[in-house]
Design goal:
With 678 residues, the protein is α+β, with helices and mostly antiparallel strands. The protein has 18 helices and 23 strands. Strands 1, 2, 3, 4, 5, 6, 7 and 8 form an 8-stranded antiparallel β-sheet that branches. Strands 9-10-11-12-13 form a 5-stranded mixed β-sheet, with helices on both faces. A 5-stranded mixed β-sheet has the order 14-16-21-18-19, with no helix packed on it. Helix 6 (236-252) packs across helix 7 (262-271), helix 7 packs across helix 8 and helix 11 (336-370) packs parallel to helix 12 (393-409).
Length: 678
Amino acid sequence: MVQKFQSPVRVYKYPFELVMKAYERRFPTCPQMPIVLDCEVISDEVAEDGSQRNTKRRCTLAVDAPYIFKKLIGVEVVYFLQNNFLDWANRTLNIEAVNESFSSRIEIFERCRYYAHPDNPDWTCFDQTATLDIKNFFGFEHSMEKMGMKQYTQTTLKGKEIIEYFINELKAEGITEVDRWKPPVDAAASSISRQSSKDMEQENGIADVHGVKRGSKPEILLDGDFIAKHLGQLTPMQESKLLELRKMLEDCEEDMSKLPSYQTILRFLRARDWHVSQALSVLKDSLKWRKDNSIDNLLDDYKMPAVVTEHFPGGWHHYDKDGRPIYILRLGHMDVKGLLKSIGTEGLLKLSLHICEEGIQKIKQSSESLGTPVLDWSLLVDLDGLSMRHLWRPGVKALLSIIECVESNYPETMGRVLVVQAPRVFPIAWTIVSAFINDNTRSKFIFYGVADANTMKEGLEQYIDSELIPDFLGGTCKTLVHEGGLIPKTLYKMNSLEEDEQAEQAQQNKSMNEHGRATNNGLNSDHHGLYKTVELKTGYIHEVVIRNTDVKSVLTWDFDVIRGDLHFTLYRVTKDLPRQQDAAVSFFDLNDFSEGVNYFKEETTLICHHKESVQGSHVMNYKNNYVLHWFSPSCGIEGPTQLNYFYEILSSANYKGSMTSLQSGFSSNSATSSCQSR
């Protein structure tokens, strides 16, 4: 079991020589590190010209562990050997430390380095790496691993504090400068000293925190100031994993300029709960995806289609109180079907990726402007007008595909999602969509239902300045976001998604009864997004029976009137339904059926005209039969009325788990009324 640790570069804004004088004061003990009981000098060798010093110490450390643990292993202290190689000529101090105690059971190796800042010779850098290899430790391997992580975190946090403490102590004594080492008159020895220092670094494989050999300048020096300004608060262990992943990427990519930013690496680590190997795998896949699809050029190459410019209800809108860019999406005003028929699934995906790329750009601009870390953006989703027409099956399929792509390639870019004016239909949509959203992303959603209208503006003011709240949400700020609305059919492509889907099923549809009545128990009805087409003569009906055994499950439907007019009704039947052969006769025309006695109209009859689309849903509160009923009152000269339909059942388990905070805003039965779109 090997654990690796690595710290980012720590920068002291003092010359190397002053830092070294402060460093010497921490021996043999210092108050900031009470765990170090003593440091005995074993040997101390200085080069003739004074350019190098090699010091070996044996350090005694108290065992920082529970009493019972110390009793079991039988020791109160452990010993470490430390070797310091100080090179005044090249202004470096290399430190190596290994454990002497229990060396056959556990190996601890730590390497630290102080060196002059590559860009500012009056500053000093420090980096640190460590490995912990636990072979066998009395059955306490896991406990030792935890203690090792704890000890590394403590020493990393204390290290800079200790140097700063002793520098201030030196200042109090009037020592603010220390002369640099200068070679003697005979410069040959110092030349050898410099060469030997470089040889030692090469032999030991000493590299900077980026894995770049000394003398080659890294793209960005990851120091404490950079982390505070661009990455935010990180624990030492998180910093270590960030550097570990960065080093792995460097090993895979020779061109340093092609490496992702630290912000991007950090996002992938957070999305994989800091598992470095998992983050590396998905990040490499994402980098390949970006290359294969020329994503780096998307902002320059993408030409927004006219239908998007004129009808897409989304756009950027100022910043929230945390400096995050805000994107507003008036989803309830979006014509999902019209948009997909106009630009297709690929076009909608490209639009979504363009928004994500814009978001990354705006995040960076905001962070630079504020001088503080901004790592993600906010999404404000207005659901006013949301209905089942937005759950058009091909549209949902396209949305899930987009979510999958964004989750894979833009993890942790969404800082907060404010969902406002959520109507009754929203739990249905949330049930379908939420299963495809990462758990961490789901936790960032904040909901305001229609019933919360009076407190919504007050709630938004927690995250957005009052003067920036959009006017359509009760604020005073005008936005550049388009109103949306139905997209004219003149903008549709010749081959729509619906037409393609119908063509694929033409053979299946021909096999159906021309006037048919279908029956289905609805218990395991997974239609995989497939629609069925039937034709009805004048006076004929088409009925689909759902035998429900799952109380509180949700029946959803989506249909198009391809030709003619239709009447649509949803019924609930409390008695067994007979087999019926006559397509011109409904169940409810039979003598032993009486409305209000053994069958009930669950949804008001809806008159649907030529080329209309209808979507709806209903919570099935009873273990009864439910009947989707279509009736053709008349046919035109074009021929029989044509219906293209799909239905699906959402289990009660899924439905109950969705959006419980909004349940009080829904009626007891209908999740939503049927909605028509033209």
